[in-house]
Amino acid sequence: MKQTHAPQPQGTTGAATGAGIRRFSSPRARRSMLHVVERLLVYGVLTFFAFLFLLPLISMLDTAFKPRALVYSFPPTWFSGDVTLDNFRFGWNALPFDRFLLNTLFVTSVSVCGTVLSSSLVGFGFARYHARGAGLLFMVMLATLMIPPTTTLIPRFVLFAKLGWINSYLPLLDPTFFGMPFFIFLFRQFFRSIPRDYFDAAEIDGCSPFGLYWRIALPMARPALVTSALFATIGAWNDFLDPLIFLSTMDKFTLQVGLATFNGAYYSQLHLLMPMALVGIVPVLVVVVVGQRWILSGLMRQVEK
Amino acid sequence: MRTPAPETTRKQPGRLSRAAQRDQRRFYLFILPWLIGFVLFQAGPMLFAIGISFTDWLLVDTPVWRGLAHYRTMRSDAAFHAALRNTLYYSAASVPLAIALSLGLALLLNRRWAGMSVFRTIFFVPSLVSGVAVVLVWGWLFNPRYGAVNGLLGSLGLPQPGWLSDPRWAMPTIILLGVWSVGGIVVVYLAGLQNVPTELYDAARIDGAGRWQMLRAITLPMVSPVTFFLMVMVTIGSLQVFAPVYVLTEGGPRNATLTLPLYIYQNAFRFQKYGYAAALTVVLIVIALALTLLQLALARRWVYYTGWSGR
Questions:
Q1: Nearest residue on chain A to B110, alpha-carbon basis
Q2: How close does chain B come to A276, measured CA to CA in Å?
Q3: B-interface mutation test, from A48, A62, A73, A150, most B Cβ less than 10 A away
Q4: CATH for B77-302?
Q5: Is residue B65 less than 8 Å (CB to CB) from chain A?
Q6: For residue range A129-162, what is the model confidence (pLDDT) as tens digits?
Q7: pTM above threshold 0.80
Q8: Which of A13, A42, A64 is the last residue of a domain?
Q9: A166 within domain boundaries
């Protein structure tokens, strides 16, 4: 980061001292000096906060591959170069983590499909058709964004318990096929930006309403599809409370529940925790960094509300 | 025969043209999945929760009507008082902190200088990495003996609190975890800042306005709708703190981090008191609703709406 403002400082240091002030006393020169000071300040503050924001991840990376003895050394050493996979290997085998990983991949992929398909379908309805009550229903749908999921936890548990669905993935997967408000909104916004002529022309050619959605709207909505698939992936991967209450045996656990269980069993063995945390974070990190452009455009759309 | 233009048909309340009727049918067909989901997983359960809150129920037996008994119990339940206090404490501290920090960072980032997108990425990424793994990282970071935070504080000669094991510091530590993920808000703010028409600043500059004046008179009012939207969403989020306190502290030390969601969870799934847990849920719904309505009511005072909009 330092490189970005490297060319200027030579002049600045002179300007900042008393002797330099006279040299830069013309208004134009003073302004340019102010610019340099501003630059230094802004980059300085941003670098400070960037350090704070990165510290947890750096600390995790550092600890995850440390030999046990170094984890507990005092004063702490950073990136000693002494790298081991022992802690990772022990943790991975202490609980069936390969099972957790497979379960999570399954739950994530099915719920992403469900979310994207159902939300785009509903979003298309909101974008394309006029109907009595459509505006009101749209407002209701947006309002449901403000219902904390915790508030429906107990009744949902009762419902799924009565259906005999506890310790299956149905309580996690089923709701994703009924459209998620955030994604419905995203798709609706996107579909509305497609010129109506496309749909009208297809309709005249005898295209069915579902055909309009499936053959015209959806293929044109690639950016919205990618954005929502990324968000849904991250959401499903990180979900903790629902899997925690709906899954009860180890062979069904997702990674998040597995990690909590691991922490419960080994919380006093600190050197084992960071390697396993790494397993939970790195996949999301990869998705986020690779798909950042799409995720950002999705978030930006919120402002247009 | 009526004209098929939707404008005219909508004005006639009695009947719709055939095309409009067809559209109406198709509309409801398309949004049917959401309607069903809304009734089944949101509206229904919320009403159901209110119903369960008047009963004692172990799920396998028939519910026993208890009237308002659970709500009366709350009045003398010290743990509930702690949970309520902690939840409101978390909201009151984290919402202003998150909003102020993210607006500040967005203002700094809103420049066409080299490296800004790198900073944006650095702030943004933590907001999407959540879940238990992050919670574990937090616990390690703030570990009183071996953690990086106390390591840094120690090397600076500053006092090193016990963080999660100290009743006074435990909640601030959890709040910091929430603040760590403000990056999403930063990004939304950035978009909001970029929507402010530059002519406003040009005009102000001609009138001789300084930086500070432009911030107060142009930027803040122009992004106030974004601020309002974010405040409502962040407040709702702040009522749902669960994973960190479940994994790291189990509500301790001495109930210092017991939040309402955690207390609901404990009552339902540890003590099998579904009725009481449902009553606590109703309290949570009321709090969420009250805070949202309060913000809506206050919005008129400070949220500035102009004619500008994306489309």
A1: A42
A2: 8
A3: A150
A4: 1.10.3720.10
A5: no
A6: 988 889 999 999 988 988 888 889 999 999 999 8
A7: yes
A8: A64
A9: yes
